[in-house]
Every structure is written in C-alpha cells, then in structure tokens.
Sequence to fold (56 residues):
Amino acid sequence: MYTTVNENGVLNNYATEPKMYYAEYPAIWEQRRYLIQGVFATLLVTTLVLVGFSVS
Fold:
C-alpha cells in the first residue's frame, strides 16, 4: 500500500492499482455461449411475466 504523510502528520493510504490490460474480442465458442445464455434468460423472463399475468 502506498502511504503519504502531510505537514500535519495525517496519513493518506492509497490502494495499489492493478496492472491495466486491453480486453480481447470473444472467441466464436464464447459468442455462442453468450447467445445461449441470452436465449435462456429471455425464456426465463418471458415465463415469469406470463406467470405473473396469469396469477393476477
């Protein structure tokens, strides 16, 4: 941790910053997995909305 002291003796602690890196474009198999997750999420939300309408 990085610490500084000002003229009044007050300590200031600073967190260590992580190393920066650039994001990489997802591979084709990752894109397919995101698509499948999106389909399941859409089906789940649609089912919950329909159940909510049918119950009320």
Summary: Helices lie at 28-55.
